[in-house]
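Handout, page 2. Input:
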Amino acid sequence: MTTAVTPATITAYLPDAFDPRWNRLPGITVAGTRITIDPADYFFRFENSSWLVIDWETVKAELLHVEETETATVEQIALDFVRTHARPARDAGEVLTIAYQVYSYLFRDEHLAALGLPAVTAEHLRMLREAATFMALNKIELDGHISNVGPCWFFPSDTGVVFDLSKTEGQMLDEVYHGGWFNEYRRIEAIKAHTALGGRLVHGCQSAPNQSGGVVAAYGTSMARFAVELAGMKDEWIQQVEAHRVTAV
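Output:
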């Protein structure tokens, strides 16, 4: 494990209690609504302790209702909004708090009725809200270098370890996270909502989940270097995550 920056313990108080099985992963302590992360134990790589954020209330009030037009796409609107409102945050607890607001909005239960995916339940959406919140601490630099990597980069593995999911169930959850269940309206929702985390959701998976993870990246980030780094970084770290899987006796 390499850790270039070791900040103080990360603490966040969230509106809802997280599953206590998150305590299976090194560096995470969940006690009801209180989340504590020891960066030295949690991250595989931690080089940048600053994130871009926008207060969720600002996104709700000023962006979520805005419609794209023939001359302004939703992506351009989102980019302009980030340029206008984003600010650096060095408090990772604040990042977690904003991320939980983002994913509580994106993975809300009201979507279930229209999904046409009977295997996806309200419990799965809760898992997604929690896992995606931790994933918000991952970071890519503008040049495409992957600077922050935690176990929640590897979505099927970490959700499998925490929630006792099979490989198939973990991959299904990964598909939902990356947008496989979204129609165009929900894709637009996701673009707007992710401005609160300073960018847009990107991932390295192919047409099927392959443990390549996801991160919210600033607009303009080099995807070419990101893809090269991602291809070479993951195998050893995935094994470390999988080592914490609880097996039935």
